[in-house]
Amino acid sequence: MQSWLRRKDIDKLTVHEEGRRLVPTLGWPHLVALGIGAIVGTGIYTLIGVGADKAGPAVLLSFIVAGVVCACAALAYAEMSTMMPAAGSAYTYSYTVLGEAIAWIVGWSLILEYSLVVSTVAVGWSGYFAGFLQWVHTQTGWNVMLPTALMAGPHAGGVINLPAIVITFLVAGMLIAGTRESATLNAILVVFKLIALAVFIVVALPAFDSANLTPFMPYGFPKSIDAEGVERGVMAAAAIIFFAFYGFDAISTAAEETKNPGRDLSIGIIGSMVGCTLIYVLVALAAVGAMTFTVFGKSAEPLALIMRELGHPQAALVIGIVAVIALPTVLLAFFYGQSRIFFVMSRDGLLPRSLSKVNPRTGTPVAITLFTAVLVAALAGVARLDEIAALANAGTLVAFIAVSVCMLVLRKRDPNRPRVFRTPMAWVVGPLAIFGCLYLFWSLPHTTQKWFLVWNVVGVIVYVLYSRRASLLAKGQNV
Predict the structure, then answer these.
(1) What string of H, E and C letters represents the secondary structure of 139-200?
(2) Is 4 within a domain?
(3) Residues 6+ apart with CB under 8 A from 418
(4) Is-contact 77 248, C-beta < 8 A?
(5) Residue/partner pairs of 165-170 with CB below 8 Å, 24 or more apart
(6) Is residue 1 part of a domain?
(7) What residue ranges are annotated as transmembrane (predicted)?
């Protein structure tokens, strides 16, 4: 049993062998942009429609519930990341505090989270790209449309979602070129994305009609199943909309590449979370107030649809174009996080060590980035948006629970260890994050819970047959 719960030495987390070290090149502006780039994306551009379809106007409450839980988890992340400025995020914290077997499950769940998030965003981007091509065709008569078979997966009547695959490999190429270069471009695109959301708020808020908020909670608060077998309610929507809030955890994966992690990580995590919460509340209020939710609830591009229905095609065009240009910032942030999780697990020996080599010229892990691109592109080519978003949420909820538990355990086990950032009211915030995440997990679709269980059963098998014996700790090494 002891071998299953062996832990890494917290004082040696930043000691790594030559050729497997990531280069510190990022400052807090890069991290805030990385966080906002990750958080503000498919969740608000596309999943607001999915949420409104499940909760009606009470989707506003769904945003609040998901936001409170994420805020508590963000505070725990801020404390843990500044105490352990090493790549790996929740996986690394769990390895140090809870033991190898639990860390493996958390890492395996993070692989699921990041892979599915990137796939979800790629599919969401493809929907806006299709809308943009349709507009170009309508305005110019140019035949720029791709065949339906190449614009959607089998679930939507197509064969493969080619745009989703292409954008995945383009982002992978950016990350291979260099971390700082990718982060700088990401920061520029984030500004465009925020401008587009500001345009939506300014145009939609004047059309606010309180009649669109009635009935406010047509499907009730707890998760329920309607006559058509669809799961609805405020909490059912919150469990999906939760996807729209996380992304700050991608910042913690950048700890090893941050020049001043003690200061910059907490600024990045908390700053991006506060800014995005304000943006989301305003956008959601403008959306459900401007139009009845039944109109945009099924749309693949709900914000652009609302603009067109309100008679503002130019604003719809701006939102559509910016979504096409700027949604890849979400891809970049989560793709970055995914490759770093893979990288650290490989460096620890839990995955093949050959994947954790760093390119000496760019300072990036090329092999693991390409491996991630192939995995994600294969999924994005055939996946369905709402289903993969829900499954990604399951992996994230496990990671959030693990980080909150790690924070509380270390408060007891090592209370005197220096903490650059201390979570206020930790014994209130930590349990609130844990139980909030558990309730959101319970509110996920039953099929999602089953698939998540299957994923982790496969993970345990991989760990028992390979990773437990291959890990560096099993060989008496702690680097």
Answers:
(1) HHCCCCCCCHHHECCHHHCCCCEHHHHHHHHHHHHHHHHCHHHHHHHHHHHHHHHHHHHHHH
(2) no
(3) 83
(4) yes
(5) 165/122, 165/377, 165/380, 165/381, 167/122, 167/125, 167/126, 167/129, 167/328, 167/331, 168/118, 168/122, 168/331, 168/335, 168/373, 168/376, 168/377, 168/380, 169/373, 169/377, 170/328
(6) no
(7) 31-51, 58-78, 90-111, 116-136, 156-176, 188-208, 234-255, 267-296, 316-337, 363-382, 388-410, 422-442, 448-466
Give the whole-angstrom CA distance, residue 51 versus residue 301.
13
361 CB burial (10 A radius; 0-12, 13-18, 19+): exposed
ω into 261 cis (within 30 of 0): no
Reported as a single tens digit per residue, the pLDDT across 349-400 is 898 887 777 777 766 777 777 887 887 777 766 666 566 666 777 888 899 9
Return d(Cα 69, Cα 273) in angstroms, integer.
12
Q: How far apart are CA 3 and CA 31, in angstroms?
A: 36
**Is the residue at 170 inside a domain?**
yes
Residue 442 makes CB contacts below 8 A (sequence gap 6+) with: 223
pLDDT digits (tens, 9 = 90+) for 144-178: 777 777 776 666 667 788 888 888 888 888 777 76
Within 257-365, residue ranges assigned H as helices are 261-290, 293-296, 302-309, 313-326, 328-347
- Give me the number of domains the chain comprises: 1
Tokens of 72: 């508590």
Residues 6+ apart with CB under 8 A from 208: 285, 286, 289, 290
Q: Is 68 within a domain?
A: yes
Q: How far apart are CA 240 and CA 243, in angstroms?
A: 6
Close Cβ partners of 24 (under 8 Å, ≥ 6 residues apart): 256, 257, 258, 259
Q: How far apart are CA 121 and CA 46, in angstroms?
A: 9
The one-letter amino acid at 471:
S
Tokens of 13: 């987390």
Task: Give the CATH number, domain containing residue 213.
Answer: 1.20.1740.10
Cα Rg of the chain (Å, integer): 21
CA dihedral 408, 406, 431, 281 (to 10 degrees): 120
Determine contact, residues 172/335, Cβ cutoff 8 Å.
yes
Which pair of tokens denotes residue 161?
């979602």
- Residue 330 belongs to what domain range? 10-475
Q: Output the pTM of the full model.
A: 0.79
CA dihedral 60, 63, 68, 72 (to 10 degrees): -170
Give the ranges where 414-467 is alpha helix by DSSP (H): 426-443, 446-462
Q: How far is CA 42 from CA 102, 199, 403, in A?
A: 30, 17, 25
H/E segment holding residue 45: helix 42-45
The pLDDT tens digits of the residues spanning 209-248 come to: 888 888 889 888 887 777 677 778 888 888 877 767 777 7
